[in-house]
Backbone:
């Protein structure tokens, strides 16, 4: 039952009870000699016995509608304020209601929002400090080892897969007119080799240096996507705005992009990939969309390392990660991070 319906029922019932109570008191003080007068006497051509309860119910319904609309507006304020808090937005002080109880609720929500902002600021500062402390000690070793493995795989397995793919394509072209069991099997082998090439490119993407080093997030994203568009048949488009971020935030966003693109290459069978990085108001938004086979997000294994890693990285910088996927329609991954500037959440 909605707020308006509940108020109508309560007010109509209360008005009817009040009318009955006052009528009873009136008849006790001024008893009627003949109860038939209740039916015979009219008010606005309506018998008194009908007019009194009917008018009380109508009055109660009207008052219930007005009070229901009023309280619905107050509840909507609370709901919208909590939704804004969930999205990382702060409550505007000019919208605080005049009712004392709701003012108390609004004050508590504002306090929680401030605490969340402080927590996001603290998380981003810790992430930045963590990257700055660890990178000089271990990043160079990891980078060298990843480069070595990526180079060996590219020079051996990747080249062999490419040669096998070319050979299978040539064999299938010579058997193009045949429609027998052997031709179908050869085409299946060609598809498997092509998928193995995508898996190898995804693996090489994982093995390449993950740190941005002296590059900005925008430069690293453009270099990664440009290089990838030259190596895969997928149509890759990107829109990347230029703005400054904390080094820890840039590092985490770049790693989330790498993980997402790797998953797309391995699993999505997508034809196109769109990447967006923008800043809107006090939020940094990174969105990755493909038109692949998609998946049921509720069926994703809780222990999936890739998904878990991306969620943890988003949380570490005070952001949120949302994935929407529809089978045979594609997948959309969106990361929103509150922008921190000079120790406070920015208000553009």
Residues:
């Amino acid at each position: 039952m909605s707020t308006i319906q509940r108020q109508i029922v309560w007010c109509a019932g209360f008005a009817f009870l009040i009318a009955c109570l006052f009528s009873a008191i009136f008849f006790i003080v001024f008893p009627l000699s003949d109860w038939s007068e209740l039916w015979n006497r009219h008010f606005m051509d309506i018998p008194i016995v009908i007019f009194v309860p009917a008018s009380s119910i109508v009055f109660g319904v009207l008052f219930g509608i007005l009070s229901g609309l009023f309280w619905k507006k107050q509840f909507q304020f609370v709901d919208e304020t909590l939704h804004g808090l969930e999205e990382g937005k702060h409550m505007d002080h000019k919208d605080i209601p005049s009712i004392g109880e709701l003012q108390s609720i609004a004050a508590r929500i504002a306090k929680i929002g401030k605490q969340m902002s402080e927590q996001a600021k603290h998380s981003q500062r810790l992430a930045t400090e963590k990257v700055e402390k660890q990178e000089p000690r271990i990043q160079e070793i990891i980078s060298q080892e990843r480069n070595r493995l990526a180079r060996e795989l590219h020079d051996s397995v990747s080249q062999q897969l490419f040669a096998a793919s070319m050979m299978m394509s040539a064999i299938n072209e010579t058997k193009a007119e045949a429609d027998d069991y052997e031709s179908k099997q050869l085409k299946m082998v060609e598809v498997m080799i092509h998928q193995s090439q995508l898996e190898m490119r995804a693996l090489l993407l994982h093995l390449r240096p993950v740190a941005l080093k002296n590059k900005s997030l925008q430069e690293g994203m453009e270099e990664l996507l440009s290089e990838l568009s030259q190596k895969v048949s997928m149509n890759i488009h990107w829109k990347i705005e230029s703005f400054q971020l904390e080094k820890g935030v840039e590092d985490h966003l770049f790693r989330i992009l790498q993980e997402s693109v790797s998953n797309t290459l391995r699993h999505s069978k997508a034809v196109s990939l769109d990447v967006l990085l923008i800043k809107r108001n006090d939020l940094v938004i990174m969105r990755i969309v493909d038109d692949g086979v998609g998946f049921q997000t509720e069926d994703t294994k809780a222990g999936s390392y890739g998904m878990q890693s991306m969620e943890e990285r988003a949380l570490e910088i005070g952001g949120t990660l949302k994935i929407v996927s529809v089978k045979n329609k594609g997948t959309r991954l969106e990361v929103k991070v509150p922008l921190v500037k000079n120790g406070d959440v920015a208000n553009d």
User: Anything to note?
Assistant: Residues 100-174 form the longest helix (75 residues).
